[in-house]
Every structure is written in C-alpha cells, then in structure tokens.
Amino acid sequence: MRLVLVAPRGFCAGVDRAIQIVERAIEKYGAPVYVRHEIVHNKHVVEHLKAAGAVFVDELAEAPDDRPVVFSAHGVPKSVPAEARSRQMLYLDATCPLVSKVHLDAERHFREGREIVLIGHAGHPEVEGTMGQLPEGAITLIETVEDVARFQPRDPTRLAYVTQTTLSVDDTVGILAALRARFPAMTAPHKEDICYATTNRQEAVKRVAAECDLVLVVGSRNSSNSLRLVEVALKAGAGHAELIDDAAGIDWSWFDGVATVALTAGASAPESLVRGVVEAVGTRFDVAVEEDAGARESVTFKLPRVLAD
What is the pLDDT of residues 96-125, one digit of tens each? Predict the structure, then answer.
C-alpha cells in the first residue's frame, strides 16, 4: 500500500502561537490559567493543556478575578476584553493575527459608512468574535448562495465583505461570485481573508486526491478547516475521505481494496497524531510511505510582549 503524507499539514502559525501563549502563561503565573473556549479546536491539544494546568471555561463569568485568562485563537467579541478590564483581570489575547486582521477590516469599513457582509458559518467562535466587533446589525452573516439572493442591504452601493479565515476556498468563490453579480460596487478586502494555512492545505489535498482511494484527515469534528479538507478531497476526486481524531478513530473496513492512501491534518492537529496513524497503518499493511513535496511554510507570529521573554 502507498501512503502519501500530504504537505503542508498540521499546525499553522496562529495555532502554534496560541498554544505557546497558554503554556508560557502557566510557566510564568503558575496553575491554574483559565482559557475562554477551546484554545484551538483539537481535543488532544485541549487535554494536553488541561494536564499542564489550564482550565477551560465557556464564559468569562466562570473564571475568578485573580487568575490569568487567555482568549482563544478564534477571537472574541469586544465585550469580552471589556468585561475582563472592568474586573481588573490579567488577560492574554491569543487571537490569531489573521483573524485580528479581519476584525480591523470590519471596523474600518464600519467607520467609512459601509454595511458589512461576513461570509462564514453560524455558531463558529470566529464568526461570533468578528460579529461582536461592531454594534448589532452592522454585519450580516452569509453562509450560502441562497443567502445572497435573500439579502436586502440598506444601500447596495455602500457594501463591503469579510470572510471567516477557515472556509473552503472553492465554496467561497461561488458565494463571492453571487455577491458581485448582485452588488458590483461591493468593496473587497485588500488581501484575501481565508488564511494562508487553510488555502495551502486545501490546495495540497486537491493535488493528490484524484490518485487516492482513501484520504484520511486528522482533526476534531468542531474544526472548520479540518472538515473542509474532507469536503475538498471528495470534490477533487478521492475515492473516499474521512475525518479522524487519531489512529483510534480508523475504521479498518475503509481500507478494503485500497492501494493509495493520503494522510493530512487540519491546522490545529499535532504532528504526533499523524505519526500515530502512520504507525497504526504500518502494523496492518505493507506500506510504502511517501512525503509529498508540497509547499513549505515559514510564517511565524510573535508572542505577546509580556510572555516574549
């Protein structure tokens, strides 16, 4: 059996930075350090940080005033740091800088008098964080082409759009085409909002999917970018594609009649989980493992100054 390790895969710079922020906060301030929402969408990462001394909470009200709190990589509404300041809490913002860029774009459009369309998935923490940057009604969420047809702006000549950073590139193209057809004057971001890591991982899967009988994506089910990789693989011609948390999630019947398997990982999945899958497959099959010659990423993001030393 041929096993292709897709590149790039796994941690992006924003995820790596967010995890480091929690780990260094625990080192500097001691346990417990509270984290509002999952720092990134991966249960193994969350369990690792829990064991180190992190306490994950749904809302800031569950955290005490006298312990540090970290905001997740997905970003938070403005009301959250405002509450932390009012309670004189020490807080660290692990929002991915590429998500912060979307927030700043939305605020700029609002200042310049535009109504904003956000392309994204309802209920995702990143979407909630972006919509929470501005007063209610300033941003309209669009999830589908059908939503575009129903959308009635206040002034069609004063519109701008931003997007969630972890969307399917191809699906977003369709929504944008529908928006531009209805609202040709709509203002676009200076630079695309879908992040480099999401784009690179999707392009890598597209490149290998058609030659694969099976594509395995390592990632958690609440990880938007991981779910999109499964969808992309199927649309690009993979015979079958599945999302797994780790090697224990493999259904070995998926391998019946399979000659070529591709293995990748969402941007919040550690490489150790990929290696665990390689090992598990290798114990059951005669496997030739190939490292895909895909794009190499060198992006890094600085830590908050208070932790940088």
Answer: 999 999 999 999 999 999 999 999 999 999
pLDDT tier, 171 (very low <50, low <70, confident <90, very high otherwise): confident
CA distance 21 to 85: 19
Do β-strands 69-71 and 115-119 pair in parallel, antiparallel, or remain unpaired?
unpaired
Q: How far apart are CA 225 and CA 237, in angstroms?
A: 19
Amino acid at the residue 189: P
- Contact 54/21 with Cβ under 8 angstroms? no
Which residues form the catalytic set? 126
Given a cut of 90, whether residue 147 has pLDDT beyond it is yes
Instruction: Please report which confidence band the pLDDT of residue 307 belongs to, taking 50, 70 and 90 as the band edges.
Output: very high
- Mapping DSSP to helix (H, G, I), strand (E, B) and coil, where does residue 111 land? helix
pTM of the entire predicted model: 0.94
Which of 50, 69, 95 delimits the end of a domain?
Answer: 95
Determine contact, residues 243/17, Cβ cutoff 8 Å: no
| CATH code where residue 65 lies | 3.40.50.11270
Q: Could you give the angle at which helices 13-29 and 97-111 cross, rounded to 10 degrees?
A: 110
**Among 70, 77, 19, which Cα is nearest to 47's?**
19
Asked, for residue 307, whether it belongs to a domain, the answer is no
CA angle in degrees (0–180, nearest 5) for 94-139-101: 35
Q: Which domain holds residue 27?
A: 13-95
Task: Check whether 293 has a pLDDT greater than 90.
Answer: no
CATH value at residue 177: 3.40.1010.20
- Four-CA torsion 9, 10, 12, 15, nearest 10 degrees: 170
Task: Please tell me the total count of domains within the chain.
Answer: 3
